[in-house]
Write a structure and sequence with these properties.
The chain is of the alpha/beta class. It has a single domain, classed as Rossmann fold (3-Layer(aba) Sandwich). The protein is built from five helices and five strands. It has a three-stranded parallel β-sheet with strand order 1-4-5, covered by helices on one side. Strand 4, helix 4 (89-100) and strand 5 form a beta-alpha-beta unit. The two termini are 15 Å apart.
């Protein structure tokens, strides 16, 4: 995040929302606790997303999967952070809830990703990523290509 927040959210962001866990959790989400320890981010964290009226299935994002605090989100630029993505349904549902609540801009960021290496598309990406010229480096991202 230190190297590439400007690549992810080029116009900046006003608040950070963490995608809630799909299982019931008591207390603060561990990802929110971690982000609160990053200097400069602690006062941007906002607990604006909660479970909606319908549960989100594994691979089908829905518009009412999350509810959002409109008073905190309306007109603001939101960095929405997810700790794990398999299909993207929860992240896409969170983005939809933020947009429906009037967010001026929403910038999704995934901190981790579950990789199912049995999928053909994933196999191609893993093969590409394994080439020496494409190996991951902290100073290079897909947005800025540097």
């Amino acid at each position: 995040m230190h190297y590439h927040l400007k690549c992810i959210a080029p116009s900046g962001f006003d608040l950070i929302a963490v995608v809630p866990s799909s299982r019931s959790r008591v207390g603060v989400h561990p990802l929110a606790s971690t982000l609160a320890r990053v200097p400069g981010l602690e006062d941007k964290l906002a607990d604006v997303l909660s479970a909606g009226s319908r549960s989100i299935s594994r691979s089908s994002p829905i518009s009412n999967g999350y509810e959002c605090d409109r008073t905190l989100v309306n007109g603001r630029r939101v960095l929405v952070v997810e700790d794990t993505v398999t299909s993207g349904a929860h992240l896409q549902s969170a983005v939809a809830a933020l947009q429906a609540s009037g967010a001026r801009a929403v910038y999704p960021l995934v901190i981790a990703r579950h990789v199912d290496s049995r999928r053909t598309a994933v196999k191609r990406v893993l093969h590409w990523a394994d080439l020496p010229e494409n190996r991951w480096r902290i100073d290079r991202c897909m947005h800025c290509a540097t």
